[in-house]
Amino acid sequence: MKLPQNLLVLLLTILATGHFADFASAQDGASGIIERYGNLDIERTGPTIDRELAQKMLRRGNTYSNLERYEEAIEEYRKALSADPNQIEALRNLANTYYFLERYSEAKPLLARYIALQTNVSAALIAAVSTLGQLERQDENFEQSIVYDLRAIELDPDNDSQVHVMANTYNNAGHADKAIQIYGKAIEVAPGNAFFDRSLGRILEQEGHLADALAAYQSAAAKNPDSQFYTDLVESTQRRLEQ
Predict the structure, then answer these.
(1) Radius of gyration of the chain (CA)
(2) In a domain, 175, yes or no
């Protein structure tokens, strides 16, 4: 009997990675796993956590994901989290799969949970914080997004472009106060960047805080004393204040 091509690839993958036993035993216990553990948001301790089964379901999910069978991967990742809600890799992979499929409303709570469980800074954490801030901004949930955006700046202080995207989004949406927070945090973590001071001054000036804008421009000029632009900006702002 000739096996379908996709099944043949899947079986070869299982055999090559030595996970055939995992596949078989996990299948036996998989059908009722979500019913066994109930809601994924429930915090569990002790015997209700089955870490071994969670690992098996994670590996199944990864296999399906590698084969681009994403709905089946999602199912397995969810089962892994039902067995062990703190299975961090399953949590991250499920969030990434939803994001890849542009199912952002489903990705967001998983990203938030992943971030909350992290105790060490890593590339994955930086990406998760930045992504969740971006998604909340897109949904205009600005009270939520500003929290993640400020943390993203702390975690990745050399990423100038994300700072300007964040600030411009807030400012264009009529939330200049949050744009000011963004540039204030950027100046805190990257104090040598004169353009952050200049950008902060621009928004302060826009909002009618001319004296504060002058202080920001003066800070930019002090950091970049060879810039005639900053010198002229300081002088013109001083003249306006003296009028």
Answers:
(1) 25
(2) no
